[in-house]
Design brief:
Length: about 350
């Protein structure tokens, strides 16, 4: 608290000087003023102990990384907390932070974010830092506004300097292989010995069906619980399960989900209907009978692929939400007996 008061007092002295300097030298632009304010902050609050890059961002290493180095074409898994220059938290992927802020939601998974390197989808200053980090490394980064764009000269996301705590959790070169390895590890842990029915697709019958196989070309109702492989429940149409996992919503429908079982010659056709089931869900039901309960888990090629699915509800302090891109999924599916 004393540091903050001292900082504010010091800036109160510095800012008029900087502004009057701008008045005396018209060529000094807004960026240069921000540079001076940030430099003053670093000098006063951090006693000039931070490292600075040529581009103008400051950083310090909070934890050294000992894992593999990053590359400019990898997919990186990131944990992130964002603060303003008063060090008040604006957003975070951290569950503990969400609880501290009173913004925790069971609908959120609080897992690392997935960022593709070299795809112009990471703020330039953050990507600059990530390129020289190793797995397990945590850096605190003072990101000036002019580095908060995705391409040089592009629109900036921030209007002032923000402070990012960035942890490089994992570096993945091949997301397809990574997903297969993840699915196999999940299989070995929970359903050892089960073979895949297709590349990246597994089905386990929990309760055998007593009726006929589900007829092709017909609509069949089912109950389901959708999970990530870490156990996070992201969706269900079973009211008791929604209450159990604390994701119940008065706006949701807890009735049978009707799924069109495609005719044999329609298996490869895509549906543009946003309400239709994803391919892995449909494929699972194609293998089921009336009265059966089954678990199916599968590669994102059968799910939301490289686009993911946005969250149905947003919590402003949480940076994730919804279903990330390249996310393997697991579904418990129950098809009631046929009347």
């Amino acid at each position: 608290m004393k540091k903050r008061i001292f900082y504010l007092m010091a800036l109160a002295v510095f800012l008029p000087v900087a502004i009057s300097s701008c008045a005396r030298t018209p060529e000094e632009n807004v960026k240069e003023l921000h540079e001076k304010v940030l430099a003053a902050h670093v000098k006063i609050v951090h006693l000039d102990t931070l490292q600075k890059t040529e581009s103008g961002l400051y950083y310090t290493i909070l934890q050294q990384g000992s894992g593999r180095e990053n590359t400019d074409s990898a997919m990186v898994f990131i944990r992130e907390t964002i603060r303003d220059l008063q060090y008040d938290i604006n957003a975070s992927t951290d569950e503990a932070v969400a609880r501290q802020l009173g913004a925790f939601s069971y609908a959120n998974a609080y897992i690392p974010l997935q960022w593709p390197m070299g795809a112009y989808s990471i703020l330039r200053g953050l990507e600059e830092m990530l390129l020289v980090m190793r797995e397990g490394e945590i850096r605190r980064i003072w990101l000036p506004y002019w580095l908060s764009n995705y391409t040089e000269g592009g629109s900036t996301e921030n209007s002032s300097t923000l402070v990012y705590d960035l942890e490089l959790v994992k570096v993945v070169d091949d997301m397809d292989s990574y997903q297969i390895d993840t699915l196999e590890a999940f299989r070995d842990r929970h359903y050892p010995g089960v073979d895949s029915l297709a590349k990246g697709f597994y089905k386990v019958t929990l309760v055998p069906g007593t009726g006929d196989s589900l007829k092709r070309g017909t609509s069949v109702g089912a109950y389901y619980i959708g999970k990530f492989l870490n156990g996070h429940v992201f969706d269900t149409n079973v009211a008791d399960s929604a209450l159990k996992y604390r994701i119940y919503s008065d706006e949701a429908s807890y009735t049978l989900f009707d799924v069109m079982i495609p005719a044999a010659d329609d298996d490869d056709k895509k549906s543009d209907d946003e309400e239709s089931a994803i391919a892995g869900f449909v494929k699972c039901m194609q293998e089921m009978r009336y009265g059966e309960q089954a678990i199916c888990f599968f590669h994102s090629d059968y799910g939301y692929k490289e686009s993911g699915s946005s969250a149905s509800s947003q919590v402003s302090s949480y940076l994730g939400g919804g279903i990330p891109a390249y996310m393997p999924l697991c579904f418990w599916i129950s098809v009631p007996p046929k009347d």
